[in-house]
């Protein structure tokens, strides 16, 4: 029984019949719990690193620095490479796991790759919650990172491929919505466990990550794999049956034939990573890599990782810092919901450009306030100014949550053609995790050295990325994945020059030189 119906555009302007079926909604919700796990890991690390029992057990030098008034420095008291490694090791492991996840996504399917991610998550949770020393803690974080690498590879692809075209953006953003819910859930848990006497609250915070890990594992067991993946692996009849189920109609032959043809073309590509570098695939590759770099240089993950630590740095008490992190987490969730409803109506570009202005203004305002009110060894941030800083951070977080957060994952997942989709998604996740690692490892040191200037650093990057979006990012709203080349790339003022095969370029060059001119200038 369908929850609704519409026609999804297909190749060559055809209309593919498709209904919004319960199996699609349920599958997408279950798959997107990979985002819940990722978000919880992002949010929980900053909370436990602000808890005294955790610091005392694993990072005693940082604990002493936060308590010694003679050594205390507003901007530098948490500057410790080991403490940053606790957070960043997860993303370095995810980066490594991505290379293996690309293979399993292609050979074993999206569903089994999500199941592998869930198993890594469960083992990692057990080790971190039961950690007796720093080595055990870091090993647990590394296993969690492997789960992140596999989940971030498979889930966006799964969501893009199973969703009908008209609501692909909204369903894909379920992944990012669950990331924000995970961050909020972690902040609420940290706020509660910090009040537990006996010094074991941090174990409960880390252990409750088992809840989303279990959801992802169970979801991966019960959901169906995507028709794209089944057809790509040669299971044509099963792929056709799944397509009928998820579209809620027997009239799926046109879409099925298009998927079979796309799969045939994809199988002719023996080296997908090498194929990514071909001329016709460079626009998608450049945009995907740029979006991941820019997403991290908005500064969002640095703020979300270390929100309690950041608020503590600005003079908030421990409870107030955790409470403020809960507020920003709630804003993050609500604003992502805005994106779910608006991305397929307003489009990708408008959301990114509006958010760029909003983030730029809020970052500059925060830098000015902190530059005037917070010095290195004294705290002049009054209650009123403190609230205003929280409001401005919420303004910044809300802009990110309906733009760069979800769209940084959505746009790459819907632009690569099938023959390079797994490889493209692998590169996307890889670059994202690399720069997430860099930001997690460097932020507290950058905060110590840049002080309030850290917000000016991020605002400069926001200005650059907004220019990139304005000039170089085409609109992909309501365009079927298999039609991106004809309807998007060949229509763009710059990228249309790349929509020819390398062999064609060589032929044109030979003909051109034979006639006495250099055709490279035309390409």
UniProtKB/TrEMBL annotation:
It is found in: Membrane. Keywords: Membrane, Sugar transport, Symport, Transmembrane, Transmembrane helix, Transport. Residues 27-477 form the Major facilitator superfamily (MFS) profile domain. GO terms for molecular function: monosaccharide transmembrane transporter activity; symporter activity. Pfam families: Sugar_tr. Its main location: membrane. It comes from the Eukaryota. The keyword tRNA-binding does not apply. It is a multi-pass membrane protein. One of its GO terms (cellular component) is membrane. CDD domains: MFS_STP. The chain crosses the membrane at residues 20-40, 82-100, 112-132, 138-159, 171-192, 204-224, 285-309, 321-343, 350-372, 384-405, 426-446, 452-473. Belongs to the major facilitator superfamily. Sugar transporter (TC 2.A.1.1) family. This is Sugar transport protein 13. It comes from Nicotiana sylvestris. The gene is LOC104215490.
């Amino acid at each position: 029984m369908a929850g609704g119906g519409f026609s999804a555009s297909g190749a060559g302007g055809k209309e593919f019949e498709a209904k919004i079926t319960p199996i699609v909604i349920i599958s997408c919700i279950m798959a997107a719990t990979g985002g819940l796990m990722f978000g919880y890991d992002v949010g929980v690390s900053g909370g436990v690193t602000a808890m005294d029992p955790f610091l005392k057990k694993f990072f005693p030098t940082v604990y002493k620095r936060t308590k010694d008034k003679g050594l205390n420095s507003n901007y530098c008291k948490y500057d410790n490479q080991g403490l940053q490694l606790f957070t960043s090791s997860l993303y370095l492991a995810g980066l490594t796991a991505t290379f293996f996840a690309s293979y399993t996504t292609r050979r074993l399917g999206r569903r089994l790759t999500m199941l592998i991610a869930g198993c890594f998550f469960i083992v990692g949770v057990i080790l971190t919650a039961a950690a007796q020393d720093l080595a055990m803690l870091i090993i647990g974080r590394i296993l969690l990172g492997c789960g992140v690498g596999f989940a971030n590879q498979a889930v966006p692809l799964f969501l893009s491929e199973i969703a009908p075209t008209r609501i692909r953006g909204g369903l894909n953003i379920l992944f990012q919505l669950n990331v924000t819910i995970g961050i909020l859930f972690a902040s609420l848990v940290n706020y509660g466990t910090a009040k537990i006497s006996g010094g074991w609250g941090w174990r409960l915070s880390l252990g409750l990550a088992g809840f989303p890990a279990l959801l992802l594992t169970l979801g991966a067991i019960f959901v169906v794999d995507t028709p794209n993946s089944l057809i790509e692996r040669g299971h044509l009849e099963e792929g056709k049956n799944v397509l009928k189920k998820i579209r809620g109609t027997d009239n799926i032959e046109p879409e099925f034939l298009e998927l079979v043809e796309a799969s045939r073309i994809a199988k002719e590509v023996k080296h997908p990573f090498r194929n990514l570098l071909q001329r016709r695939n460079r626009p998608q590759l450049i945009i995907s890599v740029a979006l991941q770099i820019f997403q991290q240089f908005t500064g969002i993950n640095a703020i979300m990782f270390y929100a309690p630590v950041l608020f503590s740095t600005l003079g908030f008490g421990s409870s107030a810092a955790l409470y403020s992190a809960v507020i920003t987490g709630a804003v993050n969730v609500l604003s992502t919901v805005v994106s779910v409803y608006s991305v397929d109506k307003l489009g990708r570009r408008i959301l990114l450009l509006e958010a760029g202005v909003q983030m730029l203004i809020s970052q500059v305002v925060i830098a000015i306030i902190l530059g005037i009110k917070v010095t290195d060894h004294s705290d002049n941030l009054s209650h009123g100014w403190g609230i205003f800083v929280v409001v401005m951070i919420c303004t910044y977080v809300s802009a990110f949550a309906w733009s760069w957060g979800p769209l940084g994952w959505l746009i790459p997942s819907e632009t690569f053609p099938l023959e390079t989709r797994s490889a493209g998604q692998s590169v996307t996740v890889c670059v994202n995790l690399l720069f997430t690692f860099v930001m997690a490892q460097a932020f507290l040191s950058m905060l110590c050295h840049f002080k309030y200037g850290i917000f000016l650093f991020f605002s400069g990057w926001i200005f650059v990325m907004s220019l990139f979006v304005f000039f170089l990012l085409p609109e992909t709203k309501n365009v079927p994945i298999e039609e991106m080349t004809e309807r998007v790339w060949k229509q763009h003022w710059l990228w249309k020059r790349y929509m020819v095969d390398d062999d064609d370029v060589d032929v044109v060059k030979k003909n051109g030189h034979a006639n006495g001119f250099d055709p490279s200038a035309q390409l």
